Amino acid sequence: MRANMKPIAILAAVAALSACTPDAASKFRSEAGSDLDEGSFGNPTMNNMLVQSGARDYTINLAQRFAREVPSMVTFDFDSARLDENAKAALRQQADWIRQFPEVRFRVYGHTDKVGTNAYNKRLGMRRAQAVVNYLTRQGISRKRLEAVVSYGETQPLVVTEGRERRNRRTVTEVSGFVKNNPLVMNGKYADIVFREYVSSATEEPVYANTGQ
């Protein structure tokens, strides 16, 4: 009985293999996960490199720290792209923070309130973003590290109102990534940035609360 079953088993295996399509057979012989990558430097490959090098996590962490540690937003008078003294003071703090990370790029987003046409407000938002970039460059930040290419105009208000609202007339500075072709991230040396920051923070003088003594 067993001798008769062996040829039947062989025939069944041959039939199963012959039923496989060429595409299924090629996937069976290829390495695991190959069907997730299109074979070039596409999104799956790029995502893996960003994660493994630490670039993605470090960019996100820097963006969160920047928003937490310095005033990332400045506001403007109505229908104006002029920086007042409060705005300049906030931008000097931004510049001090940005200088710690010469490998990092930043983007400035311009906004307006809802008074006026959308087309006019979009141009005004861009003028405000450019005013911020120009001031930061005067503080010694390289223009190549700053982008003023996005203006949301009146489309993303902080306060929903059709009238004048200063909090909507603003720019927001954000971390956008690393300098193009910067080797410190892709070869794993992004830890140098962390170490430099650690040494700098260790030398800061502590601030003590006034105890009245």
Query: Multimeric state of these chains?
Result: single chain
Give the integer mean of the pLDDT values.
75
CATH architecture descriptor text of the domain at 55-201:
2-Layer Sandwich
Report the structural category.
alpha+beta
Which series of helices and strands comes N to C? HHHHEHEHEEHH
Secondary structure tally: strands = 4
Could you characterize what this model shows?
The protein is an alpha+beta fold and about 210 residues long. The chain has a domain at about 55-200: OmpA-like domain (60s Ribosomal Protein L30, Chain: A). The protein contains eight helices and four strands. The protein has a four-stranded mixed β-sheet with strand order 1-4-2-3. Strand 2, helix 6 (about 120-140) and strand 3 (about 145-155) form a beta-alpha-beta unit. Mean pLDDT is about 75; it is low at about 25-30, about 35-40, about 50-55, about 185-190 and about 205-213.
Give structural attributes.
213 residues; alpha+beta; four-stranded mixed β-sheet; 48% helix
List the topology elements.
Blueprint: H1 2-19, H2 22-29, H3 43-53, H4 55-69, E1 73-75, H5 85-98, E2 104-111, H6 118-138, E3 146-153, E4 170-178, H7 183-186, H8 191-202
Parallel strand pairs: 2-3
Antiparallel strand pairs: 1-4, 2-4
Give the structure's gist in a few sentences.
With about 210 residues, this protein is of the alpha+beta class. The chain has helices spanning about 1-20, 20-30, 45-55, 55-70, 85-100, 120-140, 185, 190-200, and strands spanning about 75, 105-110, 145-155, 170-180. It has a domain at about 55-200: OmpA-like domain (60s Ribosomal Protein L30, Chain: A).
